[in-house]
Every structure is written in C-alpha cells, then in structure tokens.
Amino acid sequence: MKASVIITGSEILKGIRHDMLIQPIASAMVSRGICMGEIRIIGDDPEALSEAVHELGAVSDIVIVTGGLGLTPDDTTHTVIGKLQASPYVRMNPEIENPVGSARGIDIHLESGARVVFLPGVPREALAMFGVLVHDLLPDAPAVTEITVFGLRETEIARRLGPLAGSCAFLPRDMEVALIVPREIGQKVREILKRHALDEQSLSESVGTLLKNRGITVAAAESCTGGLISHLITQLPGSSAYFKGSVVSYSNDLKTALLGVPADLIDRHGAVSREVAEAMLKGVLEASGADMAMATTGIAGPAGGSEEKPVGTVWIAAGGRDSYTVKTFLFPFDRQGNKMIFAKTALFLLREWINDTDVHSL
Length: 362
Prior knowledge:
Elements: E1 2-8, H1 10-13, H2 22-31, E2 35-42, H3 46-57, E3 62-66, H4 77-86, E4 91-92, E5 106-109, E6 115-119, H5 123-137, E7 144-150, H6 154-161, E8 169-173, E9 176-182, H7 186-193, H8 203-214, E10 218-222, H9 228-234, E11 243-248, H10 252-259, H11 263-269, H12 274-288, E12 292-298, E13 313-319, E14 324-330, H13 335-357
Parallel strand pairs: 1-2, 1-3, 3-6, 10-11, 10-12
Antiparallel strand pairs: 4-5, 5-6, 7-9, 8-9, 12-13, 13-14
Helix pairs in contact: 2-5, 8-13
C-alpha cells in the first residue's frame, strides 16, 4: 500500500507555526508496512488542495489531508469536500469520529480507487483520530508496540539495531525517541538497546514507577535546570507518593543559604563543578529528608561558557546519603534543549543508580 499526506495551513508556509503532524503520521504508516509516497504542505487554497488531492489520489492508495475542517474563514477544506461529494464517481464513507474534539473526519473513495481522509489540523485531534484509522488501513499488518528510548540519537539507535531498523519507525519527542516496532521483534530490540530502552512510555514515568514500586522518596536540587526536573516529575498523577520537593538554587547565595554549600567551595571550584554538585545533593537530602536526590549545576547557554567549561557543560549528582554518583556531560543544544537534556539525564542517572545498586525502600 502506498500513502501520501497533504498538510494544509498558510500559517505553516508563513512560518507562524510549525508542523506537528508529518512525523507521527509517517512513522505510524511506515511501522505498519505502508510506503510513504509524497508529503505536501500547501496554503489555505481550495484550488491548490483540489489539484493536490486528484494528483496524489491517482498515484496513491490512501491520501491523508489535515487542516481546514474548522469554522474560521480560512478553513477552506469544506469547499473541496463539497465538490468531491457532488461527483457521481465518488463514494462517501461514514464520517470518522473525533474522540477529543467536535470536527469529524471525512472519508471518501475516489473514482481511481484511492481513499482520501480529511482530518482536523489540530494535532491532538488529528493524531487521536489517525491512531484509530491507521489500524484499519492494513488490518492484517503485524501488531506493533512502542518502545521509548533515552540516551541514544536516532542514528545510533539505527546503527545498533542494524537490519531491524528498517522495520521500525522513529518519533523523536523532547530528547526521547519513541520507536514503533513490530511486536514480534520488540523483545529483541530491548535486548539490543539494553538500559536505553525504558519500561514505560516516558523517562519521567519510568522513573516514577521505579520509585513507587520500591518505596523510595526523592528530592531535587536544581540550578541550571531551573525547576524542570520537578516539573517533569510532577506532570505525573500520584507523584506526591515519592516526590518530596525541590530547591531551585539558581544563585550562589541560595546554594549556600538553602543547601549549605560552603561559599569557599564555590570560590575554589566554581559553581559548575563536581564538588558543588555533590554538596548540593547532600544539602537537599538533609533539607528534604528524602531517601535519594538529584542535583544539577551547569551552563545552559547561550552565554556563560569558557574554554574550560563550555556552554552545554553540566555536573549531575544522583543517589543517597552514603552512596551516590557524580558525572559530567557536555551537550550541543540551545538553551531550551540543554535544560531539557540536563533534567532528563539527571532522571536517567538516578534510574541507573537505583538499578545498579538494587536499592529498595530505605
């Protein structure tokens, strides 16, 4: 089966917003053995959309069209749908239910035999509807499973998987990669990727489940991450069962006042150092009473770096009072990306330390 996708929206062409649908839709198609023929992005132009639908419908088995099903003046997709409905050679299928919104999807079979499905442009709605639709496209396709990976880029994941990579779809999201793989090779993929293949659908959920199952409480001392670790943890319902809280000690003064980091330690080694990360860890453990903690101190950028400590440098400490690990990393992202990778690396480091030391309730 061959598929094509048409993304409509003048805002995308003008750079007002970025597309959030191409990658997840294409990944879902590929993981089920559907060949992607072409992807087009066009403006809110009925004539251009009509032309694209007929062109791609002539060379595709299915065409997915997103956008333009709302009530705003530039929602012109209804014009094209109306013309298609008027043709005696077009067969209308039942509308596609929208589980998270009001705009229903339109499902049409063209004279060529191609199936054209119109979905809303709102990503949350389009993906929810497509998630149901994609299972019907190839009902005999192998069942798939999703494996979330952290700590490896897509190219490295593909290199490690070797020939298996061709059967997988890759969907990056917030420094993690969701792999959509045939269920029959899921275990093999996990064995190859080892510790990088998470147990849950996100790193935060994986760490949260681990803490909850083992009866461990945790806290965080954050400098460069500015509270992002706390945000990631508390996004999950029930996190109060294992998360004590955090200290966002962005300034050196607060590192000293709230976490007890000696001022002369900062003077000698700098705020971004192994020694300060270690002291922050001990300080937040003492202040919170948590069983374990994480501490981050680094340089997110774009300024503040030096030859010795360039932008992207971070020291992360994770563990308990008597045993912990402290590591440094250097990441190449912008400020937002560095903050996210710093925070998630801290969570990953804590997860690894707990598993490696086989710690349970303290």
